[in-house]
Amino acid sequence: MHLNPQRLPLLINLGFLAAQARTATHLDKKFPFTVKEDDFSTPERWDSVHNALMDLAAMDVENGFYPTSSPILSESGLWKEYWNLRSYFDTEEPDEPWC
After folding, report:
1. Res. 88: pLDDT tops 70
2. 90 pLDDT band (50/70/90 cuts)?
3. Is the pLDDT of residue 67 over 70?
4. Confidence of residue 34 (pLDDT cuts 50, 70, 90)
5. Burial class (CB in 10 A: 0-12, 13-18, 19+), 12
6. Residue 42 Cα distances to 20, 81, 95, angstroms
């Protein structure tokens, strides 16, 4: 297993993007008719989270890294989606039973 040095910055950025998207979603539900100052809408924020998650899943498959847990992905509610995306990139099954 080779751990990519770009994994941690990508994972931190993913957590940051997910927090922004979750906050924007909450604000949109609470104040639906508020005019926003920025041009970055809530769906675009979730798209950037999804793209970063795809990059992480592809990187992990390429490096043969099978994490048993990820607090950032779990807290963001993205752990299950991470493994679903991994299944698109992964061609061989891991030996670990938790995957």
Report:
1. yes
2. confident
3. yes
4. confident
5. exposed
6. 9, 19, 38
Alpha helices in the chain (DSSP H): 7-30, 42-63, 71-75, 79-89
* Gap between the Cα atoms of 28 and 40, Å rounded: 13
Whole-structure pTM over 0.85, yes or no? Answer: no
- Listed residue (1, 2, 9, 11) closest to 57, CA to CA: 11
Distance CA 62, CA 16 (A): 24
Q: What's the token pair of residue 24?
A: 């924007």
Domain boundaries, the chain: 7-31+41-89
What type of residue sits at position 35? V
**Do residues 61 and 90 make contact, with C-beta atoms less than 8 angstroms apart?**
yes
Q: How many residues does the chain have?
A: 99
